[in-house]
Automatic annotation (TrEMBL):
Organism, scientific name: Amphibiibacter pelophylacis
The protein's name in its UniProt record: Response regulator transcription factor
Superkingdom of the organism of origin: Bacteria
Length: 212
């Protein structure tokens, strides 16, 4: 039996994942967390085979959690499940220590297959991600400007482009508004942009956010 812990800040998403995994007789969900604090509390009680982890969460992001677990030498294998397309976060997640990456829009059975694969000690990489890895190795010089941003800078970019104010971002990430302003300034400088409008256009053109 493969034990699974879920971490996603949306209760409906967690329920959907839990219900999907419940249909597999060899998978068992042992706990759910809505943020990093709840996750840490659960990890004091459980050491699951697989942690199904969202990328975008208030406070510490999924990428932050991956870094913490790697620094602690945790044996837990992490499967990242995100609403973002593979080309935006999959490579970052895998480089940060994830064992696999699944898009929330994929077929539910793909999630089951991914959890089972990771739980059995095998990396789960979709054909799309495998192609990206090959292209990344063969043509690293063709990377886009936002791919050179740090994880926190990319997170700030996406949130600003989604229409959130700096004060809202600061509260959600548990940072000071001044710190968020520094991240924003770094993003603008690295992308060669001057304001939030240009930043939003860039994010839409590069499919970092959806055009509403």
């Amino acid at each position: 039996m493969i034990s699974v812990l879920l971490c996603d800040d949306h209760a409906l998403i967690r329920r959907g994942i839990r219900d999907t995994l419940a249909e597999a007789p060899d998978l068992r969900v042992v706990g759910e967390a809505g943020d990093y604090g709840e996750l840490r509390a659960l990890l004091r009680e459980h050491t699951p085979d697989v942690l199904v982890l969202d990328i975008q969460m208030p406070g510490r992001s999924g990428l932050d959690v991956l870094q913490v677990l790697r620094d602690e030498g945790s044996p837990i294998r992490v499967l990242v499940v995100s609403m973002h397309p593979e080309d935006q976060y999959a490579l970052r997640a895998l480089k940060a220590g994830a064992w696999g990456y699944v898009n929330k829009g994929d077929d539910p059975q793909q999630l089951v297959a991914a959890v089972r694969s990771v739980g059995q000690g095998r990396k789960y990489i979709s054909p799309e991600v495998a192609l990206m890895l090959a292209e990344n190795l063969s043509t690293p010089q063709n990377s886009l400007p936002h791919e050179k941003l740090s994880d926190r800078e990319l997170q700030t970019l996406v949130m600003i482009a989604s229409g959130k104010r700096l004060s809202d971002i600061a509260e959600e990430l548990v940072l000071s508004p001044k710190t968020v302003s520094v991240y924003r300034a770094r993003v603008l400088e690295k992308l060669g942009l001057t304001n939030n409008s240009e930043l939003t256009v860039y994010a839409i053109r590069n499919h970092l956010v959806q055009d509403s």
